[in-house]
Amino acid sequence: MENAKKEKIENQLRQLLNAASQEKDQNELPAPRRMGGIQVIRKRKGQPDQHIFENPCLN
After folding, report:
1. 53 neighbors 59 (Cβ within 8 angstroms)
2. In 3D, which of 41, 38, 58 has the Cα closest to residue 50?
3. 53 and which of 1, 24, 26, 58 could share a cystine (Cβ 3.0–4.6 Å)?
4. Facing residues of 41 across strands?
């Protein structure tokens, strides 16, 4: 009796975990693509940041 209950509970747990992992995969959004803009190079020792424009018409 104990083994049957234990197996039933383990099977239910596996089903719940599988359902949760499938739901998680469906909810994940792909990473947004980067479309141009400004790249900032951080400097140290009190020097200002340098901005590099990726799109030449922005200079």
Report:
1. yes
2. 41
3. 58
4. 50
* Each residue's pLDDT tens digit, 23-49: 766 666 666 666 666 666 666 666 666
CA-to-CA distance for 57 and 7, rounded, in angstroms?
66
For residues 38 and 49, the answer to whether their CB atoms sit within 8 Å is no
Task: Please give the Cα distance from 26 to 17 (Å, whole number).
Answer: 14
Q: What share of the chain is helix, strand, coil (3-state, %, to 5)?
A: 50, 15, 35
Helix (H, G, I), strand (E, B) or coil at 42: coil
The letter for the amino acid at 44 is R
In single-letter form, the type of residue at position 36 comes to: G
The first and second tokens of residue 44, run together, are: 């140290």
Would the pTM of this model clear 0.85, i.e. be above it?
Answer: no
Dmax (CA) for the chain in angstroms is 77
